[in-house]
Fold this protein.
Amino acid sequence: MRTGILFRVLAAAAVLVMPAAASAHLVNTGLGPFYDGISHFALTPEDLLPALALALLAGLRGSHTGRLALFVLPGSWLAGGLVGLSWPTVSAATVPTMVSFIAMGGLVALDVRIRPLGMACLALVLGLLHGYLNGSAMSEARLGALGLAGIVSSLFVVVALVAALVVVLRAPWARIAVRVAGSWIVAIGLLLLGWSLRPA
Amino acid sequence: MIRSRLIRSALSAGAVAGAAFAVASTLWPIAAWAHVEQGRAAGFLAGIRHPITGLDHVLAMISVGIWGAQLGAPAIWLLPVTFPVVMALGGMVGLLGVQLPGVEIGIALSGILLGLAVFAEWRPPLWAAAAIVGCFAVFHGHAHGTELPAGASGLTYSIGFVMTTGTLHAVGIGIGVIHRWSWGRVVLRAAGALVAAAGGFFLWRALA
């Protein structure tokens, strides 16, 4: 037992005295932009929150609607991204982001009984819009289609997990918590509107 | 007996080694530099911190949750939904440069009225409760929304700000759960009286 402890302490000390670079951006494998895309989505509230709101709304409407959103949103995001890569825009993304926050958060807060077709249309519009903005940004950052693939993969996982989590909620308070989350997204969107219109 | 003592001492030695490793690790931080976007983290942390830096705000927001819990469904969720949304509207108005007279007085009055509502277990119609909460939320939002630290991100500040506000409501709702017991009702009423008294103090300070 003591030998084991000694070994662990020595191993810990060895790890501490030999720090190595994380190599977060994988230049050698060429997959760096893909991981950049994954982390970009996870670290960018402008994209993450509207996608979360759509996943919450889809989950509230049940498994069929959730499955629709799961495939339509990443698909349209990819399509919009490819368009953005080819014909990038230079305009600021604040207004579309703000509109997405208020609209999507409002739908969740009000628990709007949207039909599956309506949800598919909503996912299509949201995906095309944010995908296009992402594609434009990717084009500027020279991350290319691989970065976009990372974003879409990350998006798929997030929508799948969140929508699935909400679909199985049965307790009334849990569904209310989802609506409260929607109201938070609306509030953030309103504050963002204030920041964007603030006199210099 | 001896064997179990040996095992125990070995386990504790392992725990000490583990703790020493954890402490040593924290002394060698290496920045990730994955996505360097200036001011994002600072904005988020400032937003998280901001609503809890003023006792007048904290008491009002927790009181909203407690009052909602006293009123029961649907007020228990309607009031905490109303407050952040209308508060954000107030923040937006402040950011646009629109002056709101008597902001500090409004905030102090919110403490008094919400405290009295909790104390008296006041049960107005749902729309009236939402209107009262919404009205006061404008003052709180106006006071907070404009105070972004220099160089910080407005978006992440807003996210942190809304999250903390919502959490304070949740704390209030959590406290309000004791309403189901008779002793709990007495405690809540006493808490309401304290909040109202604190609101009176804040009003006196605002007018002084």
